[in-house]
Amino acid sequence: MASLLGVSLLARAAITADVMALTMHVVLGRDMSYAAAGGVAAALTAGVALGGPLLGRVIDRRGLRPVLLTTAALQAVFWLCAPALPYGVLLGASFAAGLLMVPVQQVTRQAIAAMTTAAQRRAAFALESVQGELSYIVGPSVVILCAAKTSPEVVVWGVGAVIVAGGVGVALLNPPLLGGDEAEPGAGAAGRPPRREWLGVRMIAVLVMGFGTTLLLSGVDLAIVATLEEADQVSWAAVVVAVFGGSSIAGGLIYGALPRAMPTWLLLGLLGLVTIPAGLARDWPWLCVAVVGAGLLTAPTLSTVADAVSRLAPAGVRGEATGLQSSAQSAGFALGSPIVGVAIDVSVPGGGFAAAGLAGLAAALTGLLLSRRPPAARRAGGDGQEEGGERPAAAVGTP
């Protein structure tokens, strides 16, 4: 587990920085507009969102190593050639690169589900969420620093090299993706259950809440920049973001040590509630204080989403399920900034925090309503798992 998390952190830090690396290349290396850079970023993000479930399905059918080595080889080709591609070709190639991005994050989640018992998974996924926060803090910051010291082309090649190295590293570790005990549903001879048996309302509820969580987080990042720009303190944005990330890491470690889990809808609802008042802050010191509450709930909310997906998905389809989770969260990141940006444009920068928080509350309410449907309305065996908790006794052993 320690080796997997170490190699995964390296790869995830590079993957979280890939959009920034391409942005620096288009804006600084090609002297093009930020709109042009946004087009490349959108193409890459769209590819990642669509490719997650497809790669997960192939992993379920063909195994881990073929997928990791193939995607790593294709990433090597893309990142090596990206600086020389015409802009139009770069757009299409970025989409293809996103579609075939090395699936390190979802493989890590699958492996955690397979390598831990039900009692250990909450703490393990909390640690995985902390790892994700570290990657978001380190990756883009290193890219920006390197872009200031070297050429954007070197940064692009460096990011690509780390992504490839991470994919190959995980392939060499070859972590198990299926549990070895008989309690793993869908493992071994049981094979791959039909999608209608596991993609029920409870799984959809979890995916909606995963989407809402990342939409909120993406919106908060933009609202922080907008608030500090109005106060003429944009240079302090990195400090506020660091406080936000640091409090999220602390929250993940604290939550992983708690004796009992909390439902995703409750954590997301609380995250939405504490995000809204952050809009009252008018300068960077108060903004640092205001984002601590949201930060403490960020990693716990993300970890409960991953934990719920692992519990609801039979082992034979866990790759596809974690791919759907990655797609939902990627879509939230992609849509958060535009939605909150509109709210900021029609109101004040503080309105961005309100919009992000309300979006999180709406997703939490939707998840609660879906997960609380009457038992008669649920598919037998497909969504009997209690979200964020243990499997009900009546559902154990259901065909």
TrEMBL record:
InterPro entries in alphabetical order: MFS, MFS_trans_sf
Keyword Magnesium attached: no
Region (Disordered): 375-399
Database matches in Gene3D superfamilies: MFS general substrate transporter like domains (1.20.1250.20)
Record carries keyword Transmembrane: yes
Keywords associated with the record: Membrane, Transmembrane, Transmembrane helix
Membrane-spanning parts: 32-55, 154-173, 204-228, 234-255, 262-278, 350-370
A Gene Ontology molecular function term of the record: transmembrane transporter activity
SUPFAM superfamilies in the record: MFS general substrate transporter (SSF103473)
Top-level taxon of the source organism: Bacteria
Name of the protein this chain belongs to: MFS transporter
Record organism: Bailinhaonella thermotolerans
Origin organism lineage: Bacteria, Bacillati, Actinomycetota, Actinomycetes, Streptosporangiales
